[in-house]
UniProtKB/TrEMBL annotation:
The gene is folD. Catalyzes the oxidation of 5,10-methylenetetrahydrofolate to 5,10-methenyltetrahydrofolate and then the hydrolysis of 5,10-methenyltetrahydrofolate to 10-formyltetrahydrofolate. It catalyses: (6R)-5,10-methylene-5,6,7,8-tetrahydrofolate + NADP(+) = (6R)-5,10-methenyltetrahydrofolate + NADPH; (6R)-5,10-methenyltetrahydrofolate + H2O = (6R)-10-formyltetrahydrofolate + H(+). It comes from Streptomyces vulcanius. Its EC number is 1.5.1.5, 3.5.4.9. Homodimer. HAMAP family: THF_DHG_CYH. Residues 6-121 form the Tetrahydrofolate dehydrogenase/cyclohydrolase catalytic domain. This is Bifunctional protein FolD. It holds the Pfam family THF_DHG_CYH. PANTHER family: C-1-TETRAHYDROFOLATE SYNTHASE, CYTOPLASMIC, C-1-TETRAHYDROFOLATE SYNTHASE, CYTOPLASMIC-RELATED. It comes from the Bacteria.
Length: 281
């Protein structure tokens, strides 16, 4: 068996084409361009690359990207103040705080400073709760992108056993909740899980979100399983790609799988936020 590729670049391109049409319609109707504010703390090269990629995608669909660069030694209180100001700014539709922030920053406090109506990256407690209770709101961008990628390939979820490896509040936990809402049976695994290989070997769907290169070995994969690799470290994913591709039915490449879907979801939710803000005026 050779796995089919879950091509995030192609699916994301289709989403962004539709977003471009939505932006054109919004500008024609309301006379303004949606604005995504990106907040970057420090000089992490990877973070600068990611923010640059997001700005490029924004420009291609007609969204304005407002970039806020802050010194690495900024305090949590000063960062929170900056985000509160963006939350109160009526010209800003979405706010992205680039993860990770320096170790001395209370990242959760900074996330919670984002107004829920502008939380287009889906990182606040409010967004997690509304997503978990299926009450609307914004999904976490990477989990939302994963679900859109699975749907684009018509991969059935009802009744299937999904194993999520990773429990971060902006990736592992929310993707499990989204799968549960689609009637999958979900098992969470993490760094303290005993018998990880056994859990993975019984999964119909594997979502690797641990941030540990090639943690999941190819021979653990159940024949015919769907493998979604959301890891990215040292240009490698969390899954031993070559060996896993010989057993899986579908698999995401790294890069080119989950990453483009994250950005597309973030931008689509920014336009959705802009529409909500216009309807509330």
């Amino acid at each position: 068996m050779t796995a089919k590729i879950l091509d995030g670049r192609a699916v994301a391109a289709g989403i962004l084409d539709r977003v471009r049409e939505d932006v054109t319609a919004l500008v024609a109707e309301h006379g303004r361009v949606p604005v995504l504010a990106t907040v970057l703390v420090g000089d992490d090269p990877a973070s600068h690359t990611y923010v640059g990629m997001k700005a490029n995608r924004c420009a291609k669909v007609g969204i304005h990207s407002l970039r806020i660069d802050l010194d690495a030694d900024i305090t949590t209180s000063a960062l929170v103040k900056q985000i509160h100001e963006l939350s109160a700014d009526p010209t800003v539709d979405g706010i992205l705080l680039q993860h990770p922030v320096p170790d001395h920053i209370d990242e959760r406090a900074a996330f919670e400073a984002i107004a829920p109506s502008k939380d287009v990256d889906g990182v606040t407690r409010t967004s997690f709760a509304t997503m978990a209770f299926d009450e609307g709101g914004f999904t976490s961008a990477t989990p939302g992108g994963i679900m859109a990628l699975l749907d684009a390939h018509a991969i059935p979820l009802t009744g299937r056993h999904a194993v999520v490896v990773g429990r971060s509040p902006i990736l592992g936990k929310p993707v499990g909740m989204l799968l549960l809402a689609r009637d999958a049976t979900v098992t969470y695994c993490h760094s303290r899980t005993a018998g990880l290989a056994d859990h993975v070997s019984h999964a119909d769907i594997v979502v690797a979100a641990a941030g540990s290169p090639e943690l999941i070995r190819g021979d653990w994969i159940k024949p015919g399983a769907v493998v979604v690799d959301a890891g990215y470290a040292d240009n490698r994913g969390d899954v031993e790609y070559g060996a896993a591709a010989e057993r899986a039915s579908y698999i995401t490449p790294v890069p080119g799988g989950v990453g483009p879907m994250t950005i597309a979801t973030l931008i689509a939710q920014t336009v959705e936020a802009a529409r909500h803000h216009e309807s509330a005026r």
